């Protein structure tokens, strides 16, 4: 992840209108893609294969302390070993501050390019269902939502819960944590229609996970 932010203040009004139009067209296209995906039955094949993994109860939270360089290196090695042990492959996600939303986009649409749409939908979820998430946010809620709306703002476990709820998805995290290798994030009060698999490294980066040897395994290998 990084601290890059998109600054469009210098753009002309006409280019802003064009950009807005393109964003709207993209939203319609993505919504259609998602609707088609929702018609497919949920089978959870990867989840069934890894059903032996024990998950801890998920509590939405904002980002915790960032590990120092030495701990982060150890954590990265631990995560890589787990990914290999579980027969998974990582699709490397760009570290521009949007990696959580990029990884979710890759899982939902097979492309990380739709991360702006994913962030937008998460923000809508946070706004529409404030009571579900407000108690997990240690600041004024409207400030938190405004902060999360910015491109380049790091996602946290509150936005992951909102994503699970919005996309009716079970989000499966393979983590680098010493005492917790696997976290499941379930949508509230609904049965998930899809599984999204992410790797989570030391509070600082998310990648997208696929089954090693599966149809996207070759693409994952190209990014190693």
UniProtKB/TrEMBL annotation:
SUPFAM superfamilies, alphabetized: Cysteine proteinases
EC code: 3.4.19.12
Superkingdom of source: Eukaryota
Annotated stretches, region: Disordered: 1-24
GO molecular function: cysteine-type deubiquitinase activity
GO biological process: protein deubiquitination
Annotated OTU domain residues: 88-212
Reactions performed catalytically: Thiol-dependent hydrolysis of ester, thioester, amide, peptide and isopeptide bonds formed by the C-terminal Gly of ubiquitin (a 76-residue protein attached to proteins as an intracellular targeting signal)
Pfam hit, one: OTU
Similarity-based family: Belongs to the peptidase C85 family.
Protein name: ubiquitinyl hydrolase 1
């Amino acid at each position: 992840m990084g601290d890059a932010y998109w600054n469009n203040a210098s753009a002309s009004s006409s280019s802003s209108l064009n950009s807005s139009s393109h964003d709207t067209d993209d939203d319609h296209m993505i919504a259609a893609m998602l609707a088609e995906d929702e018609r497919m039955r949920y089978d959870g094949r990867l989840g069934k294969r890894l059903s032996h993994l024990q998950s801890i109860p998920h509590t939405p939270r904002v980002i915790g302390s960032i590990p120092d360089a030495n701990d982060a290196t150890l954590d990265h090695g631990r995560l890589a070993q787990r990914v290999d042990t579980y027969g998974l492959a990582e699709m490397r996600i760009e570290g521009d501050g949007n990696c959580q939303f990029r990884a979710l986009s890759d899982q939902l649409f097979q492309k990380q390019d739709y991360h702006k749409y994913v962030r937008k939908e998460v923000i809508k979820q946070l706004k529409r269902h404030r009571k579900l998430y407000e108690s997990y946010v240690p600041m004024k809620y409207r400030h938190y939502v405004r902060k999360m709306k910015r491109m380049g703002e790091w996602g946290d476990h509150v936005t992951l819960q909102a994503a699970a709820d919005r996309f009716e998805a079970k989000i499966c995290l393979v983590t680098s944590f010493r005492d917790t290798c696997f976290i499941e994030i379930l949508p509230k009060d609904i049965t998930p229609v899809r599984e999204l698999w992410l790797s989570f490294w030391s509070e600082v980066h998310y990648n997208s996970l696929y089954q090693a040897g599966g149809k996207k395994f070759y693409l994952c290998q190209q990014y190693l």
